[in-house]
Amino acid sequence: MASKFWYLTGLSLKKKMKTKWFLLANVILLVAIVGLINIDSIIGFFGGDFNDTNEVVILDYTDQVVSVFEQNLKRSNELFGTDYQTKIEVFEKSEEDLETELRESSKIGLVFRQDPESYLTVTIISDKKIDSLYYQTLVQALNTTKTQIAMRLTNIDLEELNKINSSVAIERIILDEKAKNEQESTAMIMGTVFPTVILPFFMLVIFLVQMIGSEINEEKTTRSMEIIISNVSPKVHFFSKVFASNVFVILQGLLLMSYGGIGLFLRTNFSTVPNSSFTDRVHETWSMLTTTSFMEKLYYVIPLTLLLMLLSFIAYSLVAGILASMTVNMEDFQQIQTPIMLVSMISYYLAIMAGMFEGSIFIRILSYLPFISCLLAPALLVVGQIGIIDVIISVILLIGFIFVAIKYGLKIYKIGILNYSTDKMWSKLFQAARTKKI
């Protein structure tokens, strides 16, 4: 029995891994992940330059805009968090001459005119398309410039107007400094770190369900299933599929992590673009984490999260195998797997928005449920809305679900694996689950 199990497991793994598609897919993933991490260096290598200086040529018919606009452009950079370098040139000729100057050039022309109704109008001239974010920076600076020019023309005190239009000054004091640091670090973790961690898991779950369904339906479609079941029991066949698929997705997950590590290594050591902003952000994130109690939580957050994810892989694969046994082709399986995908997607979005549900009993109950707990429970644990006991309850319920899925799923699998009809599928499924013997 054991030899047949390991033989089928090895055969299934070889079928998945010793293929040109597996190699090609991982090469694409490696290139894509490393490329995304080092996208600025790649663009720079092919001629792009993130530190290019934008040249703005100003034709000012008002004789009072240039210095004001230059100051406001710097403020716009700060507002949008950008670091655009701009060289401003004053143009003394006509607008027609300016258009001639800008033709076949990367320069941007700004023509300022006074207007009796709107005080100031601007014409933006360029030969090529302007970068969208830089365009927004220009527009913000132009709007502020218009306001200041209008204040001058109407003799309204600009400082007083700014005071009136400014937002109310709110000073928030958190007496517990530890709580303040935890609040800041939690917001940062849930906004950046946690989504980066759970996205690969979410993708691997979808891949796992699809893989088991396609493999079982392929064997049923080619009628090779009859030959296999005549030599091994459905129980051995079922467990070999589940085990091989889980080993495969775990290996694929480790490969994805290694690709990310390669990308970070190349960025840190061989990047052709100044890396200070990236490294500063990493150091800032790490410093914030080390100054809070979050680091103390890692010794139980990481093991519990990994345990939930591993058990969820098993639960998803069991359900996918059971449902696949009742279908005869991938089209039928695609329809029947829809509820699984919906539950997985719901758990992903609930985990992303976990910080919004503080104090919600309903969300706490959802964190106990199998399939949802794998993502939601760790997220709530990180933000402090549940404790270790709650996660342990989620683990126990997930183990209980796996036990029930194996007990009744094997009965369904034994009948469904050689069933080539989809008529009254659900009634057959429940009838099989009620049978006393496997």
What is the helical fraction, as a range of percent? over 70%
Residue stretches low in confidence (pLDDT < 50, at least 5 long) are none
Largest sheet: 4 strands, mixed
Outline: elongated
- Structural class of the secondary elements? alpha/beta
Give the mean pLDDT: 79
Instruction: State the strand order across the main sheet.
Output: 2-1-3-4
Radius of gyration: 31 Å
**In DSSP terms, counting alpha (H) and pi (I) runs of 4 or more, how many helices?**
18
- Provide the succession of SSEs: HHHEHEHEEHHHHHHHHHHHHH
- Find the count of extended strands (DSSP E, 2+ residues): 4
End-to-end separation: 16 Å
Strand content: 5-15%
Topology (SSEs and partners):
Blueprint: H1 2-17, H2 20-37, H3 39-45, E1 53-60, H4 66-80, E2 85-90, H5 95-102, E3 108-115, E4 119-126, H6 132-154, H7 158-165, H8 177-221, H9 224-231, H10 234-270, H11 276-290, H12 294-325, H13 330-336, H14 338-352, H15 361-366, H16 373-382, H17 388-416, H18 425-434
Parallel strand pairs: 1-2, 1-3
Antiparallel strand pairs: 3-4
Helix pairs in contact: 1-10, 2-10, 4-6, 8-10, 8-12, 8-14, 10-12, 12-16, 12-17, 14-16, 16-17, 17-18
